[in-house]
Write a structure and sequence with these properties.
The chain is α+β, with helices and mostly antiparallel strands. The chain contains 8 helices and 26 strands. The chain has 2 domains: 271 residues, no CATH class; 97 residues, no CATH class. Helix content is 22%, strand content 40%. A hairpin with a 2-residue loop joins β16 and β17.
Amino acid sequence: MGVRIGCGLSTDPDPRSGAIEASQRARATLDGHRCDIALVFASGHHLASPESTLEGVDEALAPPQLAGCGAGGVLGAGREVEEGTAVAVWAAALDGGSAEVFHAEAIDGPDGTAVVGLPSDEPEAMVLLPDPYSFPADAFVAELGEIPILGGISSARTLDGSAALFCGDEVMADGAVGVVFEGVDIHPAVSQGAAPIGPEMTITAAEGHMIQELAGRPALTALRDAIAALPATEREKVAEGLLLGFVVDSGMPEFTRGNFLVRALLGADPDTGALAVGAQVDPGQVVRLHVRDAQSADVDLREVLDRERTSFGGLPPAGALMFTCNGRGRGMFGEADHDALTADAALAGAPVAGFFAAGEIGPVGGRAHLHGFTATLAVFGP
């Protein structure tokens, strides 16, 4: 049979009715196969009564495993609903594979913060949906190292101000919820939405988050000279926001889009010429300037999705989960449904659902990272 995936989206303002409608649409695509796992992403009125949303999903779909979260906007079936009330339901029949939902909490102790509630065995793949205020997502993702983790940080809370995290038939008030998959073909896809420009430069002096020298020169001086040497069209893009990409695999014969972990430039010290960046840096790392604009984000997403389609021999995948930044959407592209429609076209209509996240999780260079302005996908093989 292979994995079967369905998704549905509803903008019905009644939480229970909307959840039933979206779940019925997801169930229809499963072609009669029993749902093994459902993921639910909800916004608007659903956050006033999330229990009603979960009751609606259970009534229409009866998933034995369920996870999800509140969101500022959701996407599914080629649509993006960035404002108002909507619910997206993603359902899968795993054909012998398994999925287990968990709820993790961060507990402060004398030796630091410990995360409890994780599955005991190391998973083959994980989808993680953390609350931004009560869970240390960045540190947790970094600590798990090479486990393929995909997901997004919940971008909305309940009306009483607690976390809106869905785990089974319960709404969790803090922490993170997630799903571990076993025996399921999942391919991570990460579009950082940025284009490399200018020359590659090697860090020759650095400490912590500060780059002191690039190619033996004060970092700020090297940065300014690199920008001044750019063509006029690229200098215009720098005004949209300048980033720095760090090579993640120095063994590559050449470095192209996708070989860099893109991080923000946080500031500069004009007295010392040092640059502050949003990453731990070390001498010897190779870096390149990056810019983020709508055109770069569009091209990058299409290239990433085309690579995934090619990896399946041209066959459409079973479906995908998509976590896109809440800074994308209409605000970046000037049009509705950009990421949802791009995924729908590139993946040949395979069911895709997800939400607008407050931070996206996905691997670059074989290790998971927390990103911004990114679209990450868990693509399920055909």
